[in-house]
Every structure is written in structure tokens, then in C-alpha cells.
Amino acid sequence: MAQAHEVMPSIGDMRVVDGEVVFEIRANLESFIAEINLTETTDTNESAQAATYDELRALEPDALATEFQGFWPQMAQGITLTADGGPIVPTLTNVAADPVGDVEVVRFSVFEFSAPLPSDAQTVQMGWAPEFGVLVLRQMDVPAPYDGYLEAGALTDQIPLAGGGQATAWETFVNYIPVGFDHIVPKGLDHILFVLGLFFLAARFRPLLLQVSLFTVAHTITLALAALGYTQFVDDFTQGSLGVAFIDIVEPLIALSIAYVAIENIFMKGISPWRPFVIFIFGLLHGLGFASVLGEFGLPEDTFVAALIGFNVGVEVGQLAVIAVMFFFVWQTVRIDRGENEVARGLGLYGIFGVIGLGLLAMNAADFPTVLGDPIQILDMPALLFALTVTVMAVLCIIAITLRDRLESYRRFVAVPASVVIAAIGLYWFFERSYGTITGA
């Protein structure tokens, strides 16, 4: 279930009806009206328009529809729509806003616009401005329909009105790789922290490979099963017996998995006999979390397998990118801890990293008042969180190098403190998500 401030893709269905091309868009209208840049924002709390967004969230459906009708002329200017290469003008024909409902959950509403087609039109092309965010566009009621995932202001290909514009399996595979990557970096902080929890147990290739491989196999299994609909019976059971969606149970457990691996890092120096089994079980849960993302906009039916594999490859590339960056960051400290005489080089390297971190913090100084007032908000500010991570990790590595004569200085001064922070975040999320599931908030 999408949280109220989470940025989600808009879903569009395109049809030709009585000589007009008609687009029915399921979207979060409040984010449009508040003029939040949805390409640059992953959480509406991060934007300067957060207060306006929250005010719109509380509007009744008719009032929200009226607000959107007033905003439409501005939105229409950001929509590109052509027939056979020539511009056609979209007209808003309907707005249906969902009830207010649970203000902690994203409210999706539907708006429809259309444009008359020239009598001999063969193709259309559509796109909208980057600030409107991701659009998943699906052609309806034709054979081999077009299906596109458009982000950062991308335009569709020329879509044949009679059908036949469906992407090949290879094109679908390639198109869904960045979708999976984007779900990890920058949007998947919970998955990033879990992978880093695996990394900090031991920055060695073999134990890391074992853990990541088990995690990958497990989440691939449940991602595929969930995407194919084979886990629906579990959701039906929890809805009927507990009155909550299965994903609302999964999300706290994912947070608990983050806390578990980090806490074990603090007390264990190597892979325990039970850790591989625990990682596999938690990997199954993370796969269900990935599946909930795909469920928000679905997968193309005829190239389902290619899209699923592409998404999963993107997830794996994102995870490996996170590991590679952290490995690059701490490797010099690990080498010195193992006896390599490169102290001066290490201190110089982490001094540079520290300066870079401070520079990034200065670039995000405008967010300091928000974080000082509510420190937990930093979890919704990827740029500031990254800057702080770089700075703190540089300091910890300098301490570990300076105190290199201490036994296991890397573990004591880098891996354990980092794991403590990861565990604290995981526990916070676990209690927050559990409370939200229990209370419905």
C-alpha cells in the first residue's frame, strides 16, 4: 500500500473512440495541483510544496476535482500530443476524485482528456513534461498494443492506432531494467540498508557472495510468484482473517529483517550457521515488497516474462551498485586493518571524502531546519542522507586508520557503528509500520 507522501507512477489507458483519441489517467492529482516536480522528488515531504499537498489531500472529491479543473490549462501546456506528427489539442472531459479516506495512503483519482483525430490519421505520439513524473501508458482494444514506461519527460514512439506497436521481448527487457534499478537507487532505502547489513558482516568476497546470492534467489522466487498471481490466496486469507492486506504485514517484516542482520553484525564476527537460512526467508519477503511495486502499474501481458526479468536485473544491478560504492569506500581501511602500510594514503583519501561530504552537506543546507525539527525526516531526503553518510563514513574510516593498532579496528570503528545505525532505522520502521498496520493509520 502506497504511503501518502510516496511518489507513484500515473497509469494511462489510451483508446480511439468516435474519431477521437481518449486518454484515461489514474494519478495522484494533489501532486500535480501543488506543482511538485515528480521527477526530482521521491517523497512529497521533501518538496517546498508539502504543506499545499497536505491541504489538497484533505479536500472532498468535488472540491479536488474543481481544483484540478482550474489547474488543467497549465497541465495541458505540458502535454505533447500529435497525430501523424502534427499537433492535436487535448481537452479535459472528466475528473473523478476518490474519497478522502485514509489520509496516510496515496489517493488516486482519474481524469480523462481527448483530442479529435484527422480522418486519415495512422499514428499518435504522447508524452508530458518531466515535472508530472512517470507515466505508464497502455494502448487498449487493439491487437499487439503499445505499452510504455515513460519517465523524465520521455515521449512514446509513434503508436499505430490500429495496433501492432507492441515492444518486442528484448525491448521490454531493456526498458524494465531502469525501472528495477530506480526502485533500489534512489527509492529503495529499505532494500539498500538490508544489502549494506549483509555487506558489513564481513567485507570479504566469499561470505558476501553467499549472502547476496541467497537473497537474490529468494526475492526472485517470490517476485515471480507474486507477479504471476500465485500469492493472491495469502492476501485473501489475511484480508479475511486479519482485516489487513498481506503487504501491510510484509512491510514491517522487511523492516525487521533490516534490524536483524544489522544486530547480528554487532555480535557476530562471521556467518552464523543459521544466517543463510534467515537471509533466504527475508529475501522471500523482500521479493513480495518488489512485487507490490510492479502491482502498482502492472506488467505487459504478452511480454510479461521479459519485463519481469528486466525488472529483476535492474534490482540486482542496483544492489551491486550499492555494494560496489561501499566496498570502494571502505576498502582502504580494510587493507590497513589487515596490515598494509598505507596509512598516509588512507588518511589522505578519507580526508578528500570528508571534504566532499561536507561540500554536499553545504549544498543541502536548506534542509537543515527541517531535520533539526524532526531528525527522522532525513530518511525522506536522499540527497542530504547521502551527504551525511559520506561525511560520517569518512570520519569513521579515519578513526579506524588512526587506531589501526587496536584489534579489528575496521570492525570496531566502522562496521559495528554503521550496523548500529542500520539496526536503529530498521527497528524504527518496524514499530512505525506495525503501528500503522494495527491502527490502520
- How far apart the termini lie comes to 12 Å
- Helices and strands: which structural class? alpha+beta
Strand order, sheet with most strands: 5-6-2-1-8-9
How would the global form be characterised? globular
The residue ranges in which pLDDT falls below 50 over 5 or more consecutive positions are none
Please provide the ordered H/E string of secondary-structure elements. Answer: EEHHHEEEEEEEEHHHHHHHHHHH
What is the count of helical runs? 14
Q: Based on the structure, what is the oligomeric state of the protein chains?
A: single chain
**Helix content percent band:** 55-70%
- Mean pLDDT rating: 87
Summed up, the domain count is: 2
| Main sheet makeup | 6 strands, mixed
Gyration radius over CA: 24 Å
Q: Beta fraction of the residues?
A: 5-15%
By DSSP, the count of extended strands is: 10
Notes on the structure:
The chain is of the alpha+beta class. It folds into 2 domains: 10-166, no CATH class; 184-339 and 404-439. It is built from 14 helices and 10 strands. The strands form 2 sheets. A 6-stranded mixed beta sheet has the order 5-6-2-1-8-9. Strand 3 (79-83) and strand 4 form a beta hairpin.
